[in-house]
Specification:
The chain is an alpha/beta fold. The chain has a single domain, classed as Winged helix-like DNA-binding domain superfamily/Winged helix DNA-binding domain (Arc Repressor Mutant, subunit A, Orthogonal Bundle), CATH 1.10.10.10. It contains 5 helices and 5 strands; from the N terminus they run E-H-E-H-H-H-H-E-E-E. The radius of gyration is 17 Å and the shape is elongated.
Length: 125
């Protein structure tokens, strides 16, 4: 199995905007090892990747549920809670929500590793 790694970075909104604009102007080229998903703080990342949500990602990866209803049964979490959580995780690329038969939504975890780029010193903008 190929290693599928999601690279996550932490940067302020202004830093992310400046980086995006520099790339758009051709002044900067994204590197292969650069993050592809960005959070504005470690705290916001921690909310999305709480221990409970990490366990949910592991459950999805291991058991490969065929629908949210099946995931509800496997996880013991309410479908409305799952739906909200999965939509948030999907915004960050942590899960994919595929359309299944008869309107079912099938959650998938496309990565098996996460690498965090966390600057310890302020970056000049």
């Amino acid at each position: 199995m190929t290693d599928k790694t999601l690279r996550i970075g932490i940067a302020t909104f202004d830093q992310m905007k400046a980086r995006t604009m520099a790339i758009a102007r051709g002044e900067q080229k994204p590197g292969k090892e650069d993050p592809t998903v960005w959070f504005t703080s470690l705290e916001s990342l921690a909310k999305v990747l709480s221990a409970r949500n990490q366990a949910l990602l592991d459950l999805i990866a291991q058991r490969k549920p065929g629908s949210l209803a099946e995931l509800e049964t496997l996880s013991g979490r309410a479908k409305s809670n799952l739906s909200r959580t999965l939509k948030t995780m999907a915004r960050y690329g942590l899960v994919e929500l595929e359309d299944g038969e008869q309107g079912r939504i099938i959650p998938r975890v496309p990565y098996d590793h996460i690498v965090l780029d966390l600057p310890l010193l302020s970056r000049a903008s």
